[in-house]
Amino acid sequence: MSKKKLGSFALLLLLILSTALAACSSDTGDGKTEGGKTADGENVKDILVFGRGGDSTSLDPSRVTEGESFKVTVNLYETLLNFGEQDTTINPGLATEWEPSEDGLTYTFKLREGVKFHDGTDFNADAVVKNFERWANGDAEKFPYYNSMFGGFKGDEGHVIDSVTADGDNTVIIKLTRPQAPFLKNIAMSMFAIASPTAFEKGDDEFERNPVGTGPFKFVEWKPNETITIEKFDDYWDEGLPKLKKIIFRSIPDNSARLNALMAGDIELADGINPSDGKAVEDNDKLQLFERPSMNVGYLGLTVTRPPFDKVEVRQAINHAIDKQSIIDSFFEGRADIAKNPMPTSISGYNEDIEGYEYNPEKAKELLKAAGLEDGFEMELWAMPVPRPYMPDGKKVAEVIQKNLADVGITAKIVSHEWATYLELASKGDADAFMLGWTGDNGDADNFLYVLLDEDNIGSNNYTYYKNDKLHDILIAAQTEVDEDKRNELYKEAQEIIHADAPWVPLAHSTPLLGGAKDLTGFLPHPTGSDLLSNVEFK
Amino acid sequence: MLSYIGKRMLQLIPVLLGMTFLVFMIIRAIPGNPAQIILGQQATKESVEALTIKLGLDNPWYIQYFKYLGNLFKGDLGESMRTRAPVSDEIWPYLAATFELALFAIIIAIIIGVNAGIISAWFQNSWFDYTAMIFALIGVSMPIFWLGLMGQWVFAVENPWLPTGGREQVRDPVNAITHLYIVDTIIQGRFDQLWQVFRHLILPGLALATIPMAIIARMTRSSMLEVMRSDYIRTARAKGQKMFWVVYKHALKNAIIPVLTIIGLQMGMLLGGAILTETIFAWPGVGRYIYDAIGFRDYPVIQSAILIVALFFVLINLIVDLLYGLIDPRIKYD
């Protein structure tokens, strides 16, 4: 009898399972079927679901520094000037014309007319002045980016902006205390977006969850760690834009799961595709691969205060010892350029003429001998614990570097900490050699060379504690040099000094990858990582 | 009974107090300045200093701790350093998401686990017993992220039956009232959405249920085997009772007590959030909330969220203890 009972039990189980599965497969209200409609009757092909790694922290761009927030706000707000579609050249934005004075101290902006904020408030010179006043009266904690780009706040000695005044309804005049070469580029950064004064005057904390700008899309809903929904702003000044009705930003933290969601059709655009998955996306006939123009650098930093890295020969030896090409071939799948300078080639002022340290273990050994270390030495090699576009797999790259160093007699022990700990300890100078990288904010050389390698930034972004007085003078001079050619010469010289002192082993400028549905058109990934989606549609 | 509950509640206070102290000290022992992490690599030194002072992190630890305790007694869980929103507002949607998923997973785990355990014990050493126990062994040792990704691959990518992740069909979002989407869709009579929400629960629910299911099956089997050998079972069988009733009524009642303990512990753990499952299935639960908070050194969030999760853990165990008395009248509380 037991056998019989067992048989019927098994049968029952099978029955339950099969009904469950059948129920799942006979789905209709799925919404991802082509040309289908959702319950509200909206055409599905007017809606884009954009999968990305994290959630935004705030929807007030002036209060944050983190990229996931700007990905959304760039579609909600506009800046006085815009970056180019896929570069960081200066283009008209909310200002149609702009005119710097001879001495570089006064800028006159002509504003676009007939522009409205999402809440119906008129966009005019008065609104621009109120936005600048709001920032200038803040503090470093509230508006961190304003502080770093404009040297402080009202009353501070370093504050670059002297005054912002309205001249009539459609002209704004900005006066500076001293010339600032990248001023226009700074103005174009997404964090200096012009927001509706009516909205932010209600209170900052209220505003950052209920953003109001002039952008092509307006805010609908935010479900933390899940989705942010924005929809077409009907009164947008640029006729015919945006083309989509709705965009839903979805956080899917795991890269493989996000790729699965893309392949299953749950999302139509996926940020952060692993280089190793690039080929799978290209080979899939329902998908297409997008390459984001590179504006980053991944490097191995050598803390110059820690012996033996205080010796320049040792740093140069390590530069010669590392086989960058094989790292790029194996872990970036070839989707990166070898780096020889601390900034990517697309940035003006890049020094083509510098000859990178070639892979040459023999030369490395000679240099070590010259430093009196022919028997090698032991060191710690810090591997990044998190994947970043400029370093997709820190631990594996570290293993290659470890092997390269062993070839020239250096014994490297790989060390890794949790990310926040890693940054904290590295900024204190606790690492012998550490992997790190940087993605540019505004495509200006200052944003790489000064921020990462000047002595002013020791303890913050200059993790190597590298200090060179001559370099410092050049970088400071370049900040106020308004003549573009002269400025580029200064930066070229700066790169020569850095190259000779070798505080870094520049490794790669990577091309971050995105995947999208085949019928998606008009998507142009921006090097800053914040993509304007007003031209995107399905065809 | 009531006095017993009262006593247990009183015992909670020192436990939770100790917890707040431990968590407070541990998260401050790990390196990393929240102000620096929140502002990011791009921030200047002045920004970091200003934020450090604003967050009160320049005070000595005991002042910070007693301030935190004082606020806690006023019912103030603090404000997230990163998002600047009160933790008490922020945490509920995450808790609700976790609760819904955990409940779904534990129900699956109980139904399959308990029955598999009973049948295995009933037909000890049969092929069912062996297969079930092999599956249970695989279940406890299965890496969840692998299982999750494979589940997505098979049931969402290759065969488009289920969604790859998330809680809802994002193109037709649920209007959140209680944030328990099953409840919300029923209240609003949106049964099409209810079906979608249910479909979104299946894959993460199964992935999350795997380990508890295996543990419950093994526990039920061994507990049942012991009971089945006792004299009263032989008596029941001798009386000619149907085997099914002997097993499911007489034996199970005595065998279920240790299983209940395990279920309580498992449910408590599931409520703490399952970081891997939540990450793979993009589930906005409390596990990822705490995990992200640790990454950002968002002290108020870590402290308060862990405190709430711990409270749930203890409460569930209290409920389990009370259930013993309901099932077995020999167990009395006074």
SSE blueprint:
The complex is a heterodimer of chains A (539) and B (334).
Chain A (H helix, E strand, L loop, with lengths): L1 H24 L21 E6 L14 H10 L4 E3 L6 E3 L2 E6 L5 E6 L13 H12 L7 H7 L10 E6 L4 E6 L6 H5 L9 H4 L3 H4 L9 E7 L3 E6 L13 E6 L3 H10 L4 E5 L4 H6 L3 E5 L4 E7 L9 H10 L2 H8 L4 E3 L22 H10 L7 E5 L11 H14 L3 E5 L3 H9 L5 E7 L6 H8 L15 H12 L3 H18 L2 E7 L2 E5 L2 E2 L15 E2 L1
Parallel strand pairs in A: 1-10, 1-11, 15-16, 15-17
Antiparallel strand pairs in A: 2-3, 4-5, 5-7, 6-7, 8-9, 9-10, 11-19, 12-19, 13-17, 13-18, 14-18, 20-21
Chain B lengths: L1 H28 L4 H6 L5 H10 L6 H13 L13 H36 L4 H15 L2 H15 L22 H7 L3 H38 L2 H8 L4 H29 L3 H6 L5 H10 L3 H29 L7
Helix pairs in contact in B: 1-14, 5-6, 5-9, 5-11, 6-9, 7-9, 8-9, 9-11, 11-14, 13-14
Describe this structure in words.
The complex is a heterodimer of chains A (539) and B (334). Chain A is an alpha+beta fold. Chain A has three domains: 45-56 and 215-292 and 513-538, Periplasmic binding protein-like II (D-Maltodextrin-Binding Protein, domain 2); 79-198, Dipeptide-binding Protein, Domain 1 (Dipeptide-binding Protein, domain 1); 296-510, Dipeptide-binding Protein, domain 3. Chain A is 32% helix and 20% strand. In chain A, the strands form five sheets. Chain A has a seven-stranded mixed beta sheet, sandwiched between helices. Chain A has a six-stranded mixed beta sheet with strand order 14-18-13-17-15-16. In chain A, helix 10 (312-321) packs antiparallel against helix 12 (361-370) and helix 16 (469-480) packs antiparallel against helix 17 (484-501). The longest helix of chain A is centred in the first third of the chain and has 24 residues, at 2-25. Chain A is globular and about 75 Å long. Residues 1-7 and 11-41 of chain A have low confidence and may be disordered. With 334 residues, chain B is mostly helical. In chain B, 75% of the residues lie in helices and 0% in strands. Chain B has helices at 2-29, 34-39, 45-54, 61-73, 87-122, 127-141, 144-158, 181-187, 191-228, 231-238, 243-271, 275-280, 286-295, 299-327. The termini of chain B are close together. At the A-B interface, helix 1, helix 4, strand 10, helix 8 and helix 14 of A face helix 2, helix 3, helix 5, helix 7 and helix 9 of B.
